[in-house]
Automatic annotation (TrEMBL):
<dbReference type="Pfam" id="PF12911">
    <property type="entry name" value="OppC_N"/>
</dbReference>
<keyword id="KW-1003">Cell membrane</keyword>
<feature type="domain" description="ABC transmembrane type-1">
    <location>
        <begin position="91"/>
        <end position="291"/>
    </location>
</feature>
<dbReference type="InterPro" id="IPR050366">
    <property type="entry name" value="BP-dependent_transpt_permease"/>
</dbReference>
<dbReference type="InterPro" id="IPR025966">
    <property type="entry name" value="OppC_N"/>
</dbReference>
<feature type="transmembrane region" description="Helical">
    <location>
        <begin position="214"/>
        <end position="235"/>
    </location>
</feature>
<comment type="similarity">
    <text>Belongs to the binding-protein-dependent transport system permease family.</text>
</comment>
<keyword id="KW-0813">Transport</keyword>
<keyword id="KW-0472">Membrane</keyword>
<keyword id="KW-0812">Transmembrane</keyword>
<dbReference type="InterPro" id="IPR000515">
    <property type="entry name" value="MetI-like"/>
</dbReference>
<feature type="transmembrane region" description="Helical">
    <location>
        <begin position="93"/>
        <end position="114"/>
    </location>
</feature>
<dbReference type="InterPro" id="IPR035906">
    <property type="entry name" value="MetI-like_sf"/>
</dbReference>
<protein>
    <submittedName>
        <fullName>ABC transporter permease</fullName>
    </submittedName>
</protein>
<feature type="transmembrane region" description="Helical">
    <location>
        <begin position="21"/>
        <end position="43"/>
    </location>
</feature>
<feature type="transmembrane region" description="Helical">
    <location>
        <begin position="126"/>
        <end position="146"/>
    </location>
</feature>
<dbReference type="Pfam" id="PF00528">
    <property type="entry name" value="BPD_transp_1"/>
</dbReference>
């Protein structure tokens, strides 16, 4: 209760409850997360249960249209799957890939950034030049390259089984330089401070100094960057899936649903692509707005 009371009276929570944009974004993000995580419980149907599909229900319009039915509020797709249920299940895959890819990029970036910033010298020069070279390429191209190399190196029969893991690694590798440069800059500042010098004098090992002394002082910028990067990771996964090189059709994400609906967009069945697209926009926009608020709230110059 003491920790909760301190958080309730903290500057961070005061900033949150006095910022309408942050509150609305948090509510939208919470709805998206709960709907995705609890999809097996909350979704009206299981869109991937082939036994429950009926082709006679294909292309039913949304309930708000004259021929629609509230049995399928967002309509159905070309296979008779409920679009609302497909969005909820697809959001699970998008969130899983986005969170996992961001965590992988964060872990790799922190490791490289701490090593470069604390060690300095040749190690810093080599690691940062690698990061600089990668930053000259768009993240989506790096993700496409990693995905393509992985698919060429692995047996074809394993592609669908490990496709999600390949996408996570591909997006994570494309985003780690951002974390590495942030951590490296903070580590360069912290490594010459008195508490770090005192730890060196008493014989504390460099790995322990980096993890227990330097890393806690860079968590604020890392948290902001991770929040902003989560939206980008979700968008990258959607882009890869839209291009047909992301998750397999048996585990469709929002990007896959948009790609499927795109084939029927100009034939009148617009809801198959529009509603997954709106769900993707709501998820990414809410996360990005929360990241913007968090960046401002943790910036002491704006207090």
């Amino acid at each position: 209760m003491g920790a909760l009371a301190r958080f309730w009276g903290s500057d961070l929570f005061w900033s949150f409850r006095t910022t309408p944009t942050a509150i609305i974004s948090a509510i939208v993000a919470l709805v998206c997360i709960v709907g995705a995580v609890a999809a097996p419980v909350l979704a009206p149907y299981n869109p991937f249960d082939l036994a429950s599909l009926n082709l006679m229900d294909a292309f039913n319009p949304p309930a708000l249209l004259e021929e629609g039915s509230w049995a399928h509020p967002f309509g159905t797709d070309d296979q008779g799957r409920d679009v609302l249920s497909a969005i909820m299940y697809g959001a699970r895959v998008s969130l899983l890939v986005g969170v996992s890819a961001t965590a992988f990029a964060l872990l790799l970036g922190v490791l490289v950034g701490l090593t470069a910033g604390y060690a300095g010298g040749a190690a810093d020069a080599v690691l940062m030049r690698i990061a600089d070279i990668q930053l000259t390429f768009p993240s989506i191209l790096v993700a496409l390259l990693v995905d393509g190399v992985a698919r060429a190196a692995l047996p074809r029969e394993l592609h669908d089984q490990i496709a999600v893991y390949v996408v996570i690694v591909a997006i994570g590798i494309s985003e780690w330089p951002k974390f590495a440069r942030t951590v490296r800059g903070s580590a360069l500042v912290e490594r010459n401070k008195e508490y770090v010098l005192a730890a060196r004098v008493i014989g504390v090992s460099p790995p322990r100094i980096m993890l227990t002394h330097v890393l806690p002082n860079v968590l604020g910028p890392l948290l902001v960057l991770a929040t902003l990067n989560l939206g980008l990771a979700i968008l990258s996964e959607a882009t890869l899936s839209f291009l047909g090189v992301g998750v397999p059709p048996t585990q469709p994400s929002l990007g896959t649903l948009i790609r499927i609906g795109n084939d029927f967009l100009f034939s009148g069945e617009w809801w198959i692509a529009i509603f997954p697209g709106l769900a993707l926009v709501a998820m990414v926009l809410s996360v990005n707005l929360l990241g913007d608020w968090l960046r401002d709230a943790l910036n002491p110059r704006l207090r």
